[in-house]
Amino acid sequence: MLLLDGKKLADELKAEIKTEVDAITQTGKRAPHLAAILVGNDGGSLTYVGHKVKACEQVGFKSTLLHFDDTVTEEFLLSEVKKLNEDAGVDGFIVQLPLPKHINADKIIMTIDPLKDVDGFHPVNVGKVALGMSAYISATPLGITKILERYNIATEGKHCVVIGRSNIVGRPMSILMSGQSKTGNATVTVCHSKTKNLKEITLQADIIIAALGKPEFLTGDMVKEGAVIIDVGTTRVADATAKNGWRLKGDAKYDEVSKKCSAITPVPGGVGPMTVVSLLLNTLKAAKNEVL
Ligand code: GUN
After folding, report:
1. Which of 40, 92, 143, 274 has the fewest CB neighbours in a 10 Å radius?
2. Distance, CA 48 to ligand 1 centroid (Å)?
3. Taking the complete model, does pTM exceed 0.85, yes or no?
């Protein structure tokens, strides 16, 4: 069984990005600059944004964190987004989700300049990705394609079952897996909460991408011998023996699934670190004006 080590791969990619950043700054240009808007104090969001800021430091990017109270108005947030759109010193920025209920997240995302939308959430980028055009691919799907590419996982003609249809992972991932690319050309089935006979479908899968956010949902009896498992789940589950009182759990029941599959991403240390590094890759693309 092959462990798809996202942490190791992310470290390799960070070293490659750092080399590029050094080359840019040696020509006298400023370093790539990523900004992040964070609203409120959700534990998960604080951790994720913290990882992103730290990763920027590691590769020599400039980063700016705009952290606002969860009482800010939608109008205020829209004006902050517009300021970042117009700031020539910022190459790309993200608005960490979820946002408080009184703020319309769609409206915020639609206001981001697609050329600075390094999360790839703006409909222009989602549409371009669907059409196979040059665009920002959102970070988690991009990270997964990098894992497939670097570990030489064959996808062409394979049956890929995606569990989950979220805008952030399931939907874009299903589009990428069927697209005409090195890590695409698969036959894709998208499953979700209304799917009937899920087990019958997952048992036919050569590749399973589990992105439904239900800890240990995918059990050993749902997996074909030799399948490749990409586990996108990162749910905090209470655990009194853990340092913080919680532990991250994936969507796959690791002990069971790892006995049957040919390759698997662990949680933590699989897709998570690749998501962060993919945001860096998109920001580098932005700094180099590679997306048109
Ligand atoms: N919330 C969960 N995942 C993400 C992500 O990739 N980007 C942002 N902005 N918010 C998220």
Report:
1. 40
2. 8
3. yes
Asked whether residue 101 falls in the same domain as residue 194, the answer is no
pLDDT digits (tens, 9 = 90+) for 140-163: 999 999 999 999 999 999 999 999
Q: Which atom of ligand 1 is nearest to the CA of 139?
A: 6
**3-state secondary structure at position 38:** strand
Range of the domain at 262: 139-272
Which amino acid belongs to residue 146? K
Task: Tell me, yes or no, whether 81 and 34 share the same domain.
Answer: yes
Q: Would you say the CB of residue 278 lies under 6 angstroms from ligand 1?
A: no
pLDDT digits (tens, 9 = 90+) for 31-62: 999 999 999 999 999 999 999 999 999 999 99
Give 224: exposed, middle or buried? Use CB within 10 Å, 0-12, 13-18, 19+: middle
**Which CATH number characterizes residue 91's domain?**
3.40.50.10860
Number of domains in the chain: 2
For ligand 1, the distance from its centroid to the CA atom of residue 161, given in whole angstroms, is 23
Q: If we measure between CA atoms, which residue out of 245, 243, 232 comes closest to residue 278?
A: 232
